[in-house]
Write a structure and sequence with these properties.
The chain is mostly beta strands. It is built from no helices and eleven strands. Strands 2, 4, 5, 6, 9, 10 and 11 form a seven-stranded mixed beta sheet that branches. Strand 9 and strand 10 form a beta hairpin. The radius of gyration is 13 Å and the shape is globular.
Amino acid sequence: QVQLVESGGGLVQPGGSLRLSCAASGSSSSINVMGWYRQVPGKLRELVATVARAGSRDTADSVKDRFTISRDSPKNTVYLQMNSLKPEDTATYYCYALNMNGLSSWGQGTQVTVSS
């Protein structure tokens, strides 16, 4: 079983930057895809960005020019560099992992608030 722990969230002013980190432990050698989703109360959880072990990426159109996902496989860690943050980026950000058998894991989430 994979355990995911997020860090790096917080309060930032519009136009600012944050870097989220997610460290995986447990059966991390079986992870294929890692990435980030976000959710606002009353709305569905939505894709932010993911990266597969082979390097392919999937990034939401709303953030692709501002956010960058990266992965350090030996450290079992995925990052999300968030630049030019907007108030509409305010959400709980959840780390995600998909193993090679098709099983998903989720972190508990880290809050990102963009406000002046």
